[in-house]
Amino acid sequence: MTGLGLVLVLSVLAVHTSFSQNVTDCSPCSCQPDPAGGTNVDCSGLGLTALPTNLPNDTVSLGFKYNNLTTLHLDELCKLRLLETVDLSKNKISSIRGSFRCFEYLEFHLSNNSLETLDRKTFGSSLTRLKQAFLFNNPWKCDCHLLWLKLDMQKYKNKFPPKEVRCQSPERLKGKLLKYVSPEDFTCPFPLWGKILIGVTCGLPLVGIGIVLAFRWKRKTEEKKRKPVFIKDGCVPTAKSLILEWTFAEGYNPRSCVIYITGGIVKTITVPNEQCMDGIWILEVTEGIACNTEYTVRVSGGSETDQGPSSDTICLVTVNPGVHVVGQHEEHTEYQRNFWIIGHEDDQSRIEKLCKALEKHHDLTGGTEYRDFAGGDSVFDNLDNAISTSKIVIVVLSNNTKGDWVKYQIQTVRHCLLGSDKEVDGSQRLIPIRLTCCRIPHCLRTLTTLDVWNKYFWRNLLAAFNKDTCNDDNSTAENIPLVQNNE
């Protein structure tokens, strides 16, 4: 009898010792044996921020409510193979790491936390093996990342308790039940990296296009800089020569230029840099030039073997020879000048150019207000004297032809030379010349106006000074097929 009592006492002590050991291992949580086997662990309300590391391996129920857990690491629970219920409600969980795949028929409480989204990998295919998942009272963000949960909740309705899950954001879905939100409404704003990727994808071609355009613009700018431009007021045909003037953009001056002339002749001339003065290239071509003949001319910078861009082509028609100079075979010897030019002061430079061309290249005598008005006399007396002593009065018209003084000059010339719309003296002429495509004053509209851009301008202008025509010695050269270069 004594031996049997001793065995019973030892058995009770062993059980008590084992239970005491289990309670110690659960600290700071409390552990109680489950009637069906295993251990129930309760860690609620302890303010814990992490799961205890000493949970019994035979834990079947874990209570962890009213704590401060923010991140749940599921891998820490995977060792609890007998786990059936986990209550993590009323914590501060905002993210879950790991997967539920290591659990079988688990009841999981995640209500009243701070979850906004769940990665599909968290539940994955294990949702079919979960008993229930409590997800209500979380600030769910119903966007494209949570669409899978919406679809799985429809598919596995028994896995989610009757208490509904609601959206907290975006604002347009706030308070709506997840099950009533249309799948089309689970959208995401385009991510920054996507915008950057699209920007880069679209931007690279644009950058390439920009580089190409910039290169072309630079090349065109360089070509424009290298492209010569004829100075039209300086390109003057005479009876036996062509006087040509051209220039380049500021800062560019080639070592030589090549002139191409076609018409009665075909001629290529290389012009050295010595022909350039103050940025203006000047060339007089006499060889092979005939009177009353049309020539086309263009120029390029460089040499015949290394040419730059070509200028626009100009057309010049040589004039008839034998212009009469005042005093030679002239009946009206009272004229001191062949011509007088009047116009607006803003056209002074072009007026001076025209005057010098007539004097230098056609041996005529002329004058302008800015150069030849006598000092001390009134401008009215000077004007009257200039009109009366000049055979031809040229009126230069442009868009600048405005103001009282220029209008007075035109009216005075018109009255002195063409009173009552008839010539007072047939030996004098009034010739209007347009520098630009401008309106012609009413008092001059009965007269033929010459335009400086007309290829026959110089021939028609000089015809007013000369009635002769080409003689046999100055006949037009035989036409030759037009080419750009000499063989």
Characterize this entry briefly:
This protein has 487 residues and is an alpha/beta fold.
Please write out the topology.
Elements: H1 2-25, E1 30-33, E2 39-42, E3 59-63, E4 71-73, E5 85-87, E6 95-97, E7 107-109, H2 120-123, E8 132-134, E9 140-141, H3 147-155, E10 167-169, H4 192-226, E11 229-230, E12 236-237, E13 242-247, E14 256-262, E15 266-272, E16 276-277, E17 280-285, E18 294-302, E19 307-310, E20 314-317, E21 337-342, H5 348-362, H6 369-372, H7 379-388, E22 390-397, H8 404-417, E23 429-434, E24 450-451, H9 457-463
Keywords: Leucine-rich repeat, Membrane, Signal, Transmembrane, Transmembrane helix
Subcellular location: Membrane
GO molecular function: signaling receptor activity
Would you mind describing this structure in some detail?
The protein is α/β, with parallel strands linked by helices. The chain has 3 domains: 25-185, Leucine-rich repeat, LRR (right-handed beta-alpha superhelix) (Alpha-Beta Horseshoe), CATH 3.80.10.10; 229-317, Immunoglobulins (Immunoglobulin-like), CATH 2.60.40.10; 337-467, 3-Layer(aba) Sandwich (Rossmann fold). Helix content is 25%, strand content 21%. The chain has helices at 2-25, 120-123, 147-155, 192-226, 348-362, 369-372, 379-388, 404-417, 457-463; strands at residues 30-33, 39-42, 59-63, 71-73, 85-87, 95-97, 107-109, 132-134, 140-141, 167-169, 229-230, 236-237, 242-247, 256-262, 266-272, 276-277, 280-285, 294-302, 307-310, 314-317, 337-342, 390-397, 429-434, 450-451. The strands form 6 sheets. The protein has a 6-stranded mixed sheet with strand order 1-2-3-5-7-8, with no helix packed on it. Strands 11, 12, 13, 16 and 17 form a 5-stranded antiparallel sheet that branches. A hairpin with a 3-residue loop joins β14 (256-262) and β15 (266-272). α7 runs parallel beside α8 (404-417). The longest helix is centred in the middle third of the chain and has 35 residues, at 192-226. It is rod-shaped, with a radius of gyration of 53 Å. The relative contact order is 0.07. The model is unreliable at 5-10, 12-24, 323-332 and 467-487 (pLDDT under 50).
